[in-house]
Amino acid sequence: MRIRTQFFSYFKELTGCAETTVELPADSTIAALLEQLHVRFPRMKPMQNSTLIAVGVEYQPRDYVLRDGDEVSLFPPVQGG
């Protein structure tokens, strides 16, 4: 299945792109997507525990099962002040 993944904020700098498409086996989870992304974009790996993940417009946990055509957005942790 094909999963479109968008990067926001400084994740764009870490990956060198605003979005990518990842091919995954059916019934893969967000965790499996992240594993592939960390291999492809190793500079993102240190942020793995604090990355915010949305599918469509809803935040989802890492065990969420993806569907073909899902759009996943990755955000760095929110900081304020």
Explain what you see.
The protein is α+β, with helices and mostly antiparallel strands and 81 residues long. The chain has one domain: Ubiquitin-like (UB roll) (Roll), CATH 3.10.20.30. 20% of the residues lie in helices and 27% in strands. It has two helices and five strands; from the N terminus they run E-H-E-H-E-E-E. Strands 2-1-5-3-4 form a five-stranded mixed β-sheet. It is globular, with a radius of gyration of 12 Å. The mean pLDDT is 94.
Q: What brief labels describe this structure?
A:
81 residues; alpha+beta; Ubiquitin-like (UB roll); globular
Q: Oligomeric status of the shown chains?
A: single chain
* Spatial sequence of strands, sheet with the most strands: 2-1-5-3-4
Q: Which stretches are low in confidence, meaning pLDDT under 50 for 5 or more residues running?
A: none
Percentage beta strand: 25-35%
User: Sheet bearing the most strands, described?
Assistant: 5 strands, mixed
Helix content: 10-25%
Question: CATH superfamily membership, which one?
Answer: Beta-grasp domain
